[in-house]
UniProtKB/TrEMBL annotation:
Gene symbol of the encoding locus: Galc
Pfam families per the UniProt record, alphabetical: Glyco_hydro_59, Glyco_hydro_59_C, Glyco_hydro_59M
UniProt-listed Enzyme Commission number(s): 3.2.1.46
Domain Glycosyl hydrolase family 59 C-terminal lectin intervals: 496-669
Protein name, UniProt field: Galactocerebrosidase
Disulfide bond listed as a keyword: yes
UniProt key word Metal-binding: no
Primary site of residence: other
UniProt GO MF annotations: galactosylceramidase activity
Lineage start: Eukaryota, Metazoa, Chordata, Craniata, Vertebrata
Reactions it catalyzes: a D-galactosylceramide + H2O = an N-acyl-sphingoid base + D-galactose; beta-D-galactosyl-(1<->1)-sphing-4-enine + H2O = sphing-4-enine + D-galactose
Superkingdom, taxonomy of origin: Eukaryota
Length: 669
C-alpha cells in the first residue's frame, strides 16, 4: 500500500519519518469504505450562529476592505470556513449573552425590518454563497407578546404572527428565504405553539420553511414527538445543544434529522480548534448528527464580556481594522470545502483503533471525501459538557475503497497538525496527492492531526493581506449622532446590555438636537436571562482607569424618569444585573445620585440638581484615581466622592427603567 508520510511531505519536522528498524511497530488497522449496500444519513452542513447575543455587534463598524475580508473568510466558498449554514438571532430587545439585539417589532403597532445587523449579515453571506442555508431563532421576545407575563406561549397566535412576520419581512425587504425556524432558544417548548406555527407558516405560503425543535436537550422533545403524531408531523429537525457527541434512543426512533444546533462555544485558540475538529466528526460518528452549528460565528464583541473570543475567528477592533483568522476557521475548511449539504455519509463505524475518528461522505456521483481527526483529550476539551477520558496513539490506518469508489485512482490531501509544544501549528496545508494502490491507501497518523482525503480538486487556502496591527480603543472619542441616513440603526461601538439604543430624528427640535441616540424599549421584554431593571449601553476600553465622560441628556418620562452616565463599568452580558462602576444619575424630580452599581442601591452621594424632564442638560463625570466629581451644564454639582472598586472598566450611558430617553454629543477622554 502507498504510505503517506505527512512529516516528510511537509519537509519540516525532523526525525518523524518512517519508523527505523527495531522501533515499536505502529498500531495498524484497516477500514472499508463501501457504498454497495446503500448510504448513511444525508449530510446537512456545518454552520455558525450570529447572535444569542450581539456577537457580531462590532463587525458592522469595520472599514473596508477589512470588513469584506472577514466576511470572505467566513462565507466565501473554497476560501476559508466556507460555511454551509448561517443561524441568526431573531432579536427580542433583551440580553441574550453578550448584549441585546433589537426586535423588528418593539411595540404591537410597530414593524421595522432594518434594525440591527442580522439582515445585513444574511445578505452578505448569500452574496458570497447563494446556497447557504439560513436559520432564525428567538432568544427573547418584546414584552407586548406576553401581555405583561414573562412567557411567550400564553397567546401562541400572537407569537406565531410575530415570528412569521420576521420571515415575511426577510423576503419582502431583503429578498432572503429563511430555510429553518426555531422555537425558543434553550427554554421550554409548547407543542400547541409549534403546531400553530406550522399552520401559520403554511397559511402565509411558507410551506418550504422547516421547523427545528427544541434547541435545548434531546428530551423531552423526542419523547413527546413519539407519543404525539401531530407534533411528529410538523417538526422536521431535532436540534440539541452541546450534546457531547451523543444522542438518545428516542431521538433516533423519531426517524428525524438530528442536529447539534448549537455547539463549540470555546475559546478560539488551538484547544478550541481541537474541540471543533473532534465534534465535527464525532457528532456524526457517536451521535448520528448531520449538522453542527458553532456558537459563535465571529467574536465581534468586547472581549471582557462573557465568553470572550468564543467565535470561529476574532474581529473585535473596528477602530483599528485588526482581526485574526483563528485556527477553528481552517479546521472548519477540512469539512466544508470538500462536502455540501445533500451529500451522504457512508455507513461505516468511524472510530479509529488508536483513538480519534473518521467520516466518509459522497455526492453519489463518484466523489468521495474522508475527514480524519486524532485529537487528544487535553487538547480538544470544549467548554461543555465535561469530556470523559480517552487516549489517542500514533497509528497506521489503511482504507479499502470498495463499491463505486474502487475506480478512484488519486486522492487530494489536506493536513493540519495542532502543535501544543512549540505553538507552531500547521493549518490546512495541501500535501502531495496520494495514489490509490489496488483499491487501498495507508496513512500514518500522529496525535492532534486532521486529514482530508478527497477526489475534489477545488480546495483552496486563501489569504488576504495582513490586517492592520491591534490598537486600543481611542482614548479620545466623540459621537454627535449627526447622521441623516445611517447604514445601521445603532451608533458604532455602543454595546447595548439591557434596552436598545437607536439613532433617532427629533423632528420637533429647533436645531441643536435633531439627531440623537434614543433608548426605545419601554416595557420589560420576555427575557432569556436576568436583564437589568435599568437600561445600559457600554463603550470603550475595559482597561480604562481615569476618564472624563460628557453627554447631553434628555429625560422623556415625567416624575420618575431618569438617566445616567458612567465610568469604570465592570460587567455586562448575562451578568448585567451585577454591574458595578461609577454611575452619575439625574432624575425628572430634580434630584441626582452617585452610585457604585447599576442597580442604584450603593449610594455614594445624593442631592438636588434642578434637572427636569423634556429639557436638555449636559452631564460630565470625571474619575481620577480614587476620586470622582460631576458637573451639570458645566458647573460643579458634586466632588470628592471616594471610589475604590472597580479599578477599571468601560464608559456607559442608560436609563433608570425601561423608558424613552435621549443622548447627544457623547464624549470620552
Amino acid at each position: 500500500a502507498a504510505v503517506l508520510w505527512g512529516a516528510i511531505l511537509l519537509g519540516c519536522s525532523c526525525g518523524s519519518g518512517p519508523p527505523s528498524v527495531g522501533a515499536a511497530p505502529l498500531l495498524a488497522a484497516t477500514y472499508v469504505l463501501d457504498d454497495a449496500d446503500g448510504l448513511g444519513r444525508e449530510f446537512d452542513g456545518i454552520g455558525a450562529v450570529s447572535g444569542g447575543g450581539a456577537t457580531s455587534r462590532l463587525l458592522v463598524n469595520y472599514q473596508e476592505p477589512y470588513r469584506s475580508q472577514i466576511l470572505d473568510y467566513l462565507f466565501k466558498p473554497n476560501f476559508g470556513a466556507s460555511l454551509h449554514i448561517l443561524k441568526v438571532e431573531i432579536g427580542g430587545d433583551a440580553q441574550s449573552t453578550d448584549g441585546t439585539e433589537p426586535s423588528h417589532m418593539h411595540y404591537e403597532n410597530d414593524e421595522n425590518y432594518f434594525r440591527g445587523y442580522e439582515w445585513w449579515l444574511m445578505k452578505e453571506a448569500k452574496k458570497r454563497n447563494p446556497k447557504i442555508k439560513l436559520i432564525g431563532l428567538p432568544w427573547a421576545f418584546p414584552g407586548w407578546i406576553g401581555k405583561g407575563e414573562n412567557w411567550p406561549y400564553d397567546y401562541p397566535d400572537i407569537t406565531a404572527y410575530y415570528i412569521v412576520s420576521w420571515i415575511l419581512g426577510a423576503k419582502q425587504y431583503h429578498d432572503l428565504d429563511i430555510d429553518y425556524i426555531g422555537i425558543w432558544n434553550e427554554r421550554a417548548f409548547s407543542s400547541k405553539y409549534i403546531k400553530l406555527l406550522r399552520y401559520t407558516l403554511d397559511k402565509h405560503g411558507l410551506e418550504q420553511v422547516r421547523i427545528i425543535a427544541s434547541d435545548r436537550l434531546w428530551e423531552p422533545i423526542s419523547f413527546v414527538m413519539l407519543i404525539d403524531s401531530e407534533l411528529h408531523g410538523v417538526v422536521d429537525v431535532i436540534g440539541a445543544h452541546y450534546p457531547g457527541t451523543k444522542t438518545v434512543q428516542n431521538a433516533i426512533l423519531t426517524g428525524k434529522k438530528l442536529w447539534s444546533s448549537e455547539d463549540y462555544s470555546t475559546f478560539n485558540n488551538d484547544v478550541g480548534a481541537g474541540c471543533w475538529a473532534r465534534i465535527l466528526n464525532q457528532n456524526y460518528v457517536n451521535g448520528n448528527m448531520t449538522a453542527t452549528i458553532a456558537w459563535n460565528l465571529v467574536a465581534s464583541y468586547y472581549e471582557q464580556l462573557p465568553f470572550g473570543r468564543c467565535g470561529l475567528m476574532t474581529a473585535q477592533e473596528p477602530w483599528s481594522g485588526h482581526y485574526k483568522v483563528e485556527s477553528p476557521i481552517w479546521i472548519t475548511a477540512h469539512t466544508t470545502q470538500f462536502t455540501q449539504p445533500g451529500w451522504s455519509y457512508l455507513q461505516v463505524d468511524g472510530h479509529l483503533e488508536g483513538g480519534g475518528s473518521f467520516v466518509a461522505l459522497t455526492d453519489g456521483l463518484g466523489n468521495l471525501t474522508i475527514i480524519i481527526e486524532t485529537m487528544s483529550h487535553n487538547h480538544s476539551k470544549c467548554i461543555r459538557p465535561p469530556l470523559p477520558n480517552f487516549s489517542v496513539t500514533p497509528q497506521r490506518a489503511t482504507f479499502y475503497l470498495r463499491g463505486s469508489f474502487y475506480m478512484v485512482e488519486t486522492l487530494q490531501v489536506w493536513h493540519s497538525r495542532l502543535d501544543f509544544e512549540s505553538g507552531n501549528s500547521s493549518l490546512f496545508q495541501q500535501l502531495h496527492p496520494v495514489k490509490v494502490w489496488k483499491g487501498s491507501i495507508s496513512l500514518d497518523l500522529n496525535v492532534d492531526e486532521v486529514y482530508t482525503l478527497t477526489t475534489l480538486k477545488t480546495g483552496r487556502k486563501c489569504g488576504c493581506p495582513e490586517p492592520p496591527p491591534p490598537q486600543p480603543f481611542p482614548s479620545s472619542y466623540k459621537d454627535d449622532f449627526n447622521i441623516r441616513n445611517p447604514p445601521f440603526s445603532e451608533a458604532p461601538n455602543f454595546a447595548d446590555q439591557t434596552g436598545v439604543f437607536e439613532y433617532f430624528v427629533n423632528a420637533s427640535d429647533p436645531g441643536d438636537h435633531v439627531f440623537t441616540l434614543r433608548q426605545v424599549v419601554v416595557q420589560r421584554p420576555i427575557t432569556w436571562v436576568s436583564d437589568a431593571d435599568q437600561t445600559i449601553s457600554v463603550i470603550g476600553n475595559f482597561k480604562w482607569v481615569n476618564m472624563t465622560v460628557t453627554c447631553d441628556i434628555y429625560i422623556e418620562k415625567p416624575r420618575d424618569g431618569g438617566v445616567f452616565i458612567a465610568g469604570r463599568v465592570d460587567n455586562g452580558g448575562i451578568y448585567v444585573r451585577r454591574t458595578k462602576g461609577v454611575f452619575f444619575w439625574v432624575f425628572a424630580d430634580g434630584t441626582y445620585r452617585v452610585t457604585s452599581d447599576l442597580a442604584g442601591e450603593e449610594i455614594l452621594m445624593k442631592g438636588l440638581s434642578g434637572v427636569r424632564d423634556n429639557a436638555w442638560h449636559t452631564l460630565t463625570l470625571n474619575i481620577q484615581g480614587n476620586s470622582a466629581s460631576g458637573l451639570l451644564n458645566g458647573y460643579l454639582l458634586w466632588e470628592n466622592v471616594t471610589v475604590s472598586k472597580p479599578r477599571n472598566g468601560w464608559a456607559a450611558l442608560g436609563t433608570r427603567s425601561f423608558e424613552f430617553a435621549q443622548f447627544d454629543n457623547f464624549h470620552i477622554e
